Amino acid sequence: MTIARHVKCASLALIALSSVGVLQGAYANGTASGTTINNTATVDYSVGSVAQSQISAAVTFVVDTKIDLTVEEVSTNATVTHHSLSNVVTSFRVANTGNSLQGYRLSATNESGGALFLGTDTVDVSNLRTFVDSNANGVYEPLLDIATHVDSLATDPDVGIESVVVFIVADMPAGSTTQYANVRLTAQAAVPGSNGATLETATPLNVADNKDVVQIVFADAGRDATEFALDQYALTLALSLSKTVVVISDPINNTSFPKAIPGAVMQYTILVTNSSTTLPATGVTVSDNIPANTTFVSGSIRLNGGLVSDGSGFINGPPARVVVDAGSVPENNGTAEVTFQVTINSN
């Protein structure tokens, strides 16, 4: 009884120590799904001072699949763009934080309402699409980045995770005021090699562990193998417009502190500024009706200081108006300035 009790205790102690060592190593190394873990307990003993053959007991189990993922917006700020533009890009990063090769089904949707980054969502974008960054350069390249789902994403044992950039590409609505459109990228864990077509299924919680079978555990925040992140398109007006008027001369004071009396010449200045940081404004046309009780001064139209002929810039009406083709206004606060003069009617 003493020997048997001694053998039993020794076996249990060895198995316990051996198991602790294996589990700690697995945790520290992020052991891959499907890895076979083997360990053997041994006992050396003697009976009546006679050495007996060593006895041993082995046990084996396979590491189950832990599905975990994160989705985050890359820039941590809104994507500033403009109305009516197509194929505007915003970026996200999908990371595999589990312990197995993983695919992901991707979807892009409008996120209605809510404040984010620069403002509160007031408008939807259209034609939302998802594309995977094929060469890890973080730049959307339409001819290269054609995959719409993540087919297979590994975990990197050196850094603990592997990730990929995913682009949402969308078309902006028309508008005449600053608006904000929030969008959501959702990633769902899918069977590797299915290009997102087959979603993963977790082993039911009420099913006991089977040491010989790889079972699946959803370990993400919602325990549903689905994560998402939000981004925002800030649809700003690329062009801003200001208009001023000054008295050039009057029939009493001429140019010495002139006043806006009948017969005075007034000069209007219209300044167009392009606040876009990426795109010039093209086809810019400046129009301004000649106001009532005034008469257009022939030969007074200027574009950026250069003369615009009446034949090119003045339409006698109705209504009488100045119409100037300003062409292209460069990005980064480029400007176009139009000036013209009128005389205040005397009768």
- Taking pLDDT < 50 over at least 5 consecutive residues as the criterion, the unreliable ranges are 1-29
Largest sheet: 6 strands, antiparallel
How many E strands? Answer: 26
Helical fraction: under 10%
Taking Cα atoms only, what radius of gyration do you get, to the nearest Å?
A: 37 Å
Distance between the termini: 131 Å
Q: Quote the beta fraction.
A: over 45%
What name goes with the CATH superfamily of the largest domain?
Immunoglobulins
Count of individual domains? 3
**What would you say the CATH architecture of the largest domain is?**
Sandwich
The SSE order reads HEEEEEEEEEEEEEEEEEEEEEEEHEEE
CATH topology of the largest domain: Immunoglobulin-like
CATH class of the largest domain: Mainly Beta
In short:
The protein is mostly beta strands and 347 residues long. It has 2 helices and 26 strands.
Structural key phrases:
mainly beta; Immunoglobulin-like; 6-stranded antiparallel β-sheet; 5-stranded mixed β-sheet; 2 helices; 9% helix
Q: Would you kindly provide a written description of the structure presented here, covering whatever features stand out?
A:
It contains two helices and 26 strands. It has 347 residues and is mainly beta. It has three domains: 2-61, no CATH class; 66-236, Immunoglobulins (Immunoglobulin-like, Sandwich), CATH 2.60.40.10; 239-344, Sandwich (Immunoglobulin-like). The strands form eight sheets. Strands 18, 19, 21, 22, 23 and 26 form a six-stranded antiparallel β-sheet that branches. Strands 7-17-15-9-13 form a five-stranded mixed β-sheet, with no helix packed on it. Strand 22 and strand 23 (306-307) form a beta hairpin. The radius of gyration is 37 Å and the shape is rod-shaped.
